[in-house]
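DM from R.C. (forwarded with permission)

"hey, sorry to bug you on a friday — could you get me a structure for this? deadline for the figure draft is monday and I only need the backbone to look sensible"
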Amino acid sequence: MRTAALVYSPRFKDYDFGPSHPMKPVRVARAYDLIRACSILENEHVSIARPSAADEDTVALVHSREYIDAVRAPSEGRSPKRPYAFGLGTIDNPITEGLYEATALITGASVLAADLVFDGTASVAFNPAGGLHHAHHAQAAGFCVFNDPAIAIAHLLHRAGDGVKVAYLDIDAHHGDGVQEAFYSRRDVLTISVHESGRYLFPGTGEIGEVGEGEGEGFSVNLPLLPYTEDETYLEAFREAIIPILEAFAPDFIVTQLGVDTHFEDPLTHMCLTTRGYMSIIEEIAGRFPRWVAVGGGGYHITVVPRAWTLAFARMAEVTPPERIPESQAKRYRFENSNTSEAQRKPKSRNPADPEKKELPFLHDQVKPEIDPIWAEAARRFGAQSVREVKERVFPYHGLKGK
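My reply, with the result:
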C-alpha cells in the first residue's frame, strides 16, 4: 500500500509579499483545510509531517553564501548590500519582514519531503508551499527566493551518492528556469518543464533548444505550448513527448512541481486546462513512479488552487475524494469571486455565484473554457510542432527514435 505524507506548517502563511501581491499564502492554508475536510488525512497510511527551517549549509547546495546573507540581512537588522543585484526589493520580490525565516521553512519542508521518501517513511510526500522554481544561484525572481525543489534534489543526490538518478517534472505554466539552471550540466538529473511558451509569459525562456550542456546535454527537456492550450492538446503532447523520456531515463526518484496556474481561470497565464486535465497529468505520474516527492508551485486563483491540490493529494494517497466539497468548506467555494482582472484577455466560462444555491459545490470543475476555434487550432498545431521538435532534438539522447 502506498504511504503518503503531507508536509505542512501554519507558518507557511509567513511567506507573504503583501496584500496587493498575486502570491497569496492563504491558498496553501486553504488547500490544507480542504484536504482535511475531505477526510484524506484520516486514512491510516496518510500522515502529516511538520517541517523545520533548512539550515544554511543545505540552502548553499544551490545558492551562494553571499546571496543567502543578503536574504537574511533584514532579519538581523541589517540592510542587504546591493539588494537589486540579488533580485530583492523588486515588485515581484519585495523585502518583507521575516522573509528569510519564511523561505527557509518552505525549503526545509521540501527537504523533509525528500527525506521521508528517501528513508522509505513515505512513498510520496507533498509540500504544497514549495515549488519556488524561479530562484537562481544568487538571485530571487518570479516570487521565488530560495529554490526549494532544486535544493531538495541536491539534498537527495548528496544523501544517495553516485549512481542515483532524479527526474524533475515541472507542469507549472511558467518555465522552471531556476531548477533547469541548477542541473544544466548534469546527466544524473533530468529536468523537464511543460509550460506556456516564453514568447508570451515570464520568464521568457524554456525553448526546445535548451537541452543542457557538457555531460548534461540532452538532459534538460522543454515542451513549450501556446496560449489557449486546453486539456486534449496538452495531454496528447505530454504523453507523446514527455512520458517516453521519463520512462527511458528510469529515475530512482521523481520530483514534481505541481503548479496549477495552467487552469483556465488563472489570472496570470493564458493556458486553459481544467481540473480534469490537470488530474490526468497527475495520473500519468502516479501510476509509474513509486518514489515521489511533490511540491506546489504557481496558481493564483484562490478557489482553484485548493481544489486542484486536494484532488492531487488524494491521488497521491490513493484515496477517493468526495465528489462535492464538504459543507464546512462549501461557503468559500460558493461565494468567492475570481480575482481575475477585467483586463485579462483569457476565455472563461464559470458558474455564477448563486447565494440561493443549496447544493454543495464540486471539487472538480463543472464547466470548460469557451475557446475560439481559431485559437484552439493554433494551440493544437503549435503543440504538435513542439512534440515533433522534442522528438527530433531530445529523443536520440535517450535511445528513442527521433521520428
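R.C.: lifesaver. The chain has one domain: 4-398.
me: no worries. The first strand starts at residue 4 and ends at 7.
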